[in-house]
Amino acid sequence: MGEKKKIIKVKPQLLKGFRDYPPEEQYARERMIEKVCEVFRLMGFLPLQTASLEFAETLLGPHYSKDSLAELFGFTGPDEVAMALRYEFTLSLARYVASQPNLALPFRRYQYGNVWRVDKPGPGRFREFMQFDIDIVGSKNMLADAEIIAAMVTTFEHLGIENFKVRYSNRKILNGLVEWAGIPAETGPDVMRVIDKLEKQGKEAVLLELGPGRIDSSGDKVPGLNLKNDWIDKLDTFLEIALNPGNDPLDKVMEILGDIAGAGEGVAELRQIQSHLKNMAIDENRSIVDLTIVRGLGYYTGPVFETTLLDLPEYGSVFSGGRYDDLVQRFLNQPVPAVGSSIGIDRLLVALVALRKLKMEPSTSKVLVTVMDQERLPEYLAILRQLRRAGIASEIYCGDTKNLTRQVKYADKLGIPFAVIAGSDEFESGQVTVKNLAAGAKKADGTSDREAWLKAEGFQERIPRSGLIDYLKKHLR
Question: Does residue 469 carry a pLDDT above 70?
Answer without folding.
Answer: yes
